[in-house]
Specification:
Helix content: over 70%
Low-confidence stretches: none
Strand content: under 5%
Structural class: mainly alpha
Number of helices: 4
Mean pLDDT: 94
Order of helices and strands: HHHH
CATH superfamily: 23S rRNA-intervening sequence
């Protein structure tokens, strides 16, 4: 059995919350006809990262925690794909893409490293 974890203490959770907030700010400026399409997908994927880290912290076993971190990592890969699509359809600039891509790749690396320390 593992010990209780406080998700608020994990830098990757903090970074994920900041990233999610930024995604909400960006998608609010996208075309109205995208609100149920790419915007919604991006918001859900971004929120899923921090949410799964937090939910995983509630699990008593390291294996369960790692499983939730893997789900969070999948969501990070999902949004990485979505920001490429947003760039391709000119919803975001190259500069914004580079910033978001740097942020999400940092989050992915942190999650992967955390999985590695748990397993």
């Amino acid at each position: 059995m593992g010990t209780a974890r406080n998700f608020r203490e994990y830098p990757v959770w903090k970074d994920s919350v900041s990233f999610s907030t930024k995604i909400y700010e960006i998608t609010s400026g996208m075309p109205l006809d995208e609100r149920r399409g790419l915007c919604s997908q991006m918001q859900r994927a971004a929120v899923s990262i921090a949410s799964n880290i937090a939910e995983g912290c509630s699990r008593s076993s390291s294996n369960d925690f790692a499983r939730f971190l893997e789900i969070a990592l999948g969501s990070a890969y999902e949004i990485e794909t979505q920001i490429i699509i947003a760039l391709n359809v000119n919803y975001i600039t190259n500069e914004l893409y580079e910033e978001l891509n740097t942020n999400i790749q940092s989050i992915e690396k942190q999650i992967s490293a955390l999985i590695g320390t748990i397993k």
